[in-house]
Amino acid sequence: MRMSKLFVQTLREFPNDAEAISHKLLVRAGYIKKLTSGIYSYLPLMQRVLAKISQIIREEMNSAGAQELLMPFVQPSEVWQKSGRWEVYGKELARFSDRHGNQMCLAPTHEEVITSVVSGTFTSYKQLPINLYQIQTKFRDEIRPRFGLLRGREFIMKDAYSFHTSQESLDKEYQNMAAAYKRIFERCGLETKMVQSDSGAIGGNVSHEFMVLTSTQTGENDVFYCENCDYSANSNHAVSNLLKVQTDGAKYGYDKEQKLDTPNVKTIDELAKFLNITPDCILKSVLYIADSKPVLVMIRGDKEVEETKLLNAVNAIEIRPATSDEAYEYLGCEVGYLSFLNVDKNKVKIIFDKSAQGMKNFVIGANEPHKHIVGYNFAQTPDFVDVSLVKEGELCPYCNKPLKVTRGIEVGNIFQLGTKYSKPMNATYTDENGEDKPFIMGCYGIGVTRTAAAAIERYHDDFGIVWPKEIAPYHVDVVPVNTEDEEQMQVALEIYNKLLNMGVEVVIDDRADRAGVKFKDSELIGFPYRITVGKTIKEGLVEFKCRKTGNVEKLTMDEAVEKCKTLLLS
């Protein structure tokens, strides 16, 4: 490909509306162009990257025994109503009516459709298990699209679905897919960590995410992991053994229950300072609204609520912090002095986080303005639930060693769905005894566009993208310094043609621009290797540069060609 013919326009500056480095670089390097919020055109360079990722996925999925198909992007409401998700999925599901008044939606996922495809087609246990996958555009109407391809509204995804007659069969395929995913991401040049996760709107009892660990703050989740054992989990699923702290208020002289005036003391830090205690001796109250109903969380003062855990604990679809007005409405008191005391449990659901377990003589709000109660103890032990956010340094639940935390970007996920979709949709097979049984299902997703963006988040520098060679749009950039110099152009074209004939994916920068412009574009776009043909050609030498290491060598033309062959075709 000649750069003079390539449909690409690099920019001197980053776009103003971009936050993530992958978004900034993809726009500036001419890979994508925004159409509207969260929706992008994939330009030729980007399409080549996505095609390579997709091909790697196809090869590994086929090798793992899965079969490719393609399902409709537009789905009728009927299949979603059968599964029960039409009402509960939320506003991310883009719904519309066709000209006949039929309710439809743009596919954010395909559990319902694949269940209807297999149901009635494979009806015998002898035909199972089966694993079917597709690579297709999806649409989720995100409330706040951001970070470019990392959280857009339209995206490309590989989604696979398996159907089984037993849990043992599903377990086996789950491990098969996990192994395939590891190979896929390794071939894409990405190191991933498989972490326990929440299954979210997809559902199911067991789920894991494949996370690319990043050095940037764009990572959407904290990943907690143990260096001593294999435990790792997304923050919304992570658990820990709490560190031993001072949770007995008697150590500070508060061994008797009494109500104290605490004027204008509203925050945990202010209260700890006012009473001369540590935050872990305080049982704080946090009010949420879950599906329009109030939920009061009682949690130790040094801990924070993990909202996904809370969402699951109360079996809600949506959850948000309550406003000050709602605190008055449901608890009759302003924020800062709330507690569970004298609360009507028929109107307000109360959740006690596990961090409150073992607390003695602690401090709570009095549910009266400017008052707290010290030396409080539970009259009877409540049921404790884990709804707290794990902190770095807390102990691994398996080996009791300190947990570490890093940022991560989800690029893949796997779920054990069980009969979540087959039962309500009456999707059954006939077992060996002639009885109808619901399919036991698994599903397995990879974000194709997210994988490309995550690679940039992981591999970039001050000059641009540093693609893993496996998914780079082109491998070699041949740059004649002066296109008016016949010898330079002749040698550059000879190198270009030799590489082309060998099957190397190569571009030649035949533009009549200054060498500095070409070099900057080459590094911005992220070609793994650059061969520069300049004045040293009179000595029979060209310059060979590795984008990843920055290492530069002076080689003969034949040596440069042979090096490309060794690096790319061996």
From TrEMBL:
Q: What keywords appear on the UniProt entry?
A: Aminoacyl-tRNA synthetase, ATP-binding, Cytoplasm, Ligase, Nucleotide-binding, Protein biosynthesis
Protein's recorded name: Proline--tRNA ligase
**Domain-level remarks:** Consists of three domains: the N-terminal catalytic domain, the editing domain and the C-terminal anticodon-binding domain.
Which EC numbers characterise this protein's activity in its record? 6.1.1.15
Q: Which gene encodes it?
A: proS
**Gene Ontology biological process:** prolyl-tRNA aminoacylation
What functional role does this protein have? Catalyzes the attachment of proline to tRNA(Pro) in a two-step reaction: proline is first activated by ATP to form Pro-AMP and then transferred to the acceptor end of tRNA(Pro). As ProRS can inadvertently accommodate and process non-cognate amino acids such as alanine and cysteine, to avoid such errors it has two additional distinct editing activities against alanine. One activity is designated as 'pretransfer' editing and involves the tRNA(Pro)-independent hydrolysis of activated Ala-AMP.
Q: Provide the Aminoacyl-transfer RNA synthetases class-II family profile domain boundaries.
A: 48-468
UniProt subcellular location: Cytoplasm
Q: Which NCBIfam families does the record associate with it?
A: PRK09194.1, proS_fam_II
Instruction: Give the species this sequence originates from.
Output: Candidatus Galligastranaerophilus intestinavium
